[in-house]
Amino acid sequence: MGKIEKFLWVFNVLGSALIIASIIFYLGIIPLYRSRFWKALQRPKFVKYFLWGLFSIGFIIYSILQLSNFYSLGAPMRDIAIFDQAIWHLSRFEAPASTLRGIANLWGDHFHPILVLIAPFYWIKADVRWLFIIQAAVVSAGVFPIFAIAREKLKSNFVGLAFAFSWLFFIGIQHAIRFGFYPETLAITFLAYAIYFILKNRIIWYFLFILLSFACKENIYLYIVFLGVWLIIFTRQIWVGVITTILGLVWFQSIIGFLIPHIAGFPYYYFRYEQFGNNPIEALKTIILHPKYTLEIAFSPEAKIESWLNYFTPYAFLSIFSSFLILMIPVLAEKFLSSDPQFWTMGYHYGASASTFLIISAILAVTNLLNLGLVKKIKLPENLKVIYISVFLVVLTIIFSFKSSTDPFYRFF
After folding, report:
1. Which pairs from 39-44 meet CB under 8 Å and 24+ separation?
2. Taken in order 196, 201, 205, 209, is the CA torsion positive or negative?
């Protein structure tokens, strides 16, 4: 089988979603849109019910998915035990020690003080299952800011719900949830809230959720740096962008350059970019001065191309048509420039980190798409055009969830 033939599944998935979405749209949505029932569904009361229903569905499915995988010993038990023991110590106002890691303080390995906020649940009962329930609840709560951003930008409650659905069941989030509890997975929701609040110019709430994102893991700091850069270049929030960028850089250097080494007693050792240099400075220099070599690393071996497609296909490649894509630079560089194959694939918890940036990029891309002359010539009201795109994305999300026998929903259902 040639290289091109290996990736024909992309056209099959997109084509199937397009056909099914068209049938649903013309036979279901348009008749419903012209009825009185559609207007009734737009009432705030009903919209609230649908949104909370989506949250509840996500919470139930993701809780069961994690617990069933845990009971069947399919989860990474060692990692879960590490977090469980650390949180147990924190609940007793002790340092988060880990005998499995052989360290007296887990924050000398990775810095995720968000565990402190989970510790009080262990006062009720010291039970590892709290981790799965909390993660399912926090991740599912991300539907609220995603819905709000989509509704604000695209002027439709239905579209807001559709984009929230597509985000919640993004294939990367499914894999992250199924794989087990990891603090950085919580950050995708905190980032969604931070972006929502900055778009609404609510600065205090924005920085609160930036700090919550910081508390999940040290790699989040670079994501925040690029969020600040986006604010500086593409919005009027220049000073907020400057503060955000400086905060991310200072936090990154302070935690990785000082705090983690100080706690551990030796330098930070999670550096998986040896092909670019022996340290972050050398790696950054190589990446900038040798772009051809960088691109070769980013797209080889061939398995990486599959992963690239797994990131962008669920949102029909819409995300690449938005300025917000700049936030994907540190996420994609972290994954595809790494020498560790676990970073490339979607089967671990690393796939979730891109989800929030991808969906918001897609939302902003649709707003740009509607202004294109070719799209304007389509003889449909603008809100119906947006509804069609959102139906297409929902269908695409469902199809993508069952694309492979290795995907979580394929196994679960």
Report:
1. 41/157, 41/158, 42/157, 42/158
2. positive
Three-class DSSP category at 126: coil
CA distance 358 to 346: 15
CA gap 343, 334 in Å, rounded: 8
Judged on CB neighbours under 10 Å (0-12, 13-18, 19+), 112 is buried
**What 8-state DSSP symbol labels residue 322?**
S
196 touches 145 (CB < 8 A):
yes
Please list the helix, strand and coil fractions of the chain in percent, rounded to the nearest 5, in that order: 75, 0, 25
CA distance 337 to 287: 9
Per-residue pLDDT tens digits for 111-123: 999 999 999 999 9
Tokens at 156, concatenated: 């439709």
Q: Do 131 and 118 touch, CB atoms closer than 8 A?
A: yes
> Which residues lie across from 98 on neighbouring strands?
103
Short-list 157, 191, 163, CA closest to 314: 163
Q: What is the end-to-end Cα distance of the chain in Å, rounded?
A: 31
| Omega prior to 301 cis, within 30 of 0 | yes
Q: Answer yes or no: is pLDDT of 413 > 70.
A: no
pLDDT in tens, 157-205: 889 999 999 999 999 999 899 888 999 999 999 999 999 999 999 999 9
Cα three-residue angle 258-90-102, rounded to 5 degrees: 60
Three-state DSSP string of 165-208:
HHHHCCHHHHHHHHHCCCHHHHHHHHHHHHHHHHHCCCHHHHHH
Model's pTM, two decimal places?
0.93
